[in-house]
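Input record (one chain):
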Amino acid sequence: MANAADTEAVMTENLRDMGMDEEMIGKCLRMVMEKRFGELEKLLKAYRQALLDSVHKYNDRIDCLDYFTYTLKKNGGI
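The corresponding structure, as predicted from the sequence alone:
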C-alpha cells in the first residue's frame, strides 16, 4: 500500500500535469489533508472551466486563421 508521501507525490505530479502553479497545488493538497473535499471539488470545477475557456478562445483564433487563409487562397493571394 502506498504511504502518505507517495500519495502526496502522485497528487502533486497530477496537479502539475493539469498545469496548476505551485500555489494552487499547495492549496489543493491542503484541502485534501484537511478533508475539505467540497471546497476542493468547487476549485477543481472552476479550474476545469478556466481550461475550457482557454481552449475555446484558442479554437476561435484558429477558426479566424483558417478563414483568413481560405480567403487569401480564394482571392489568389496564396
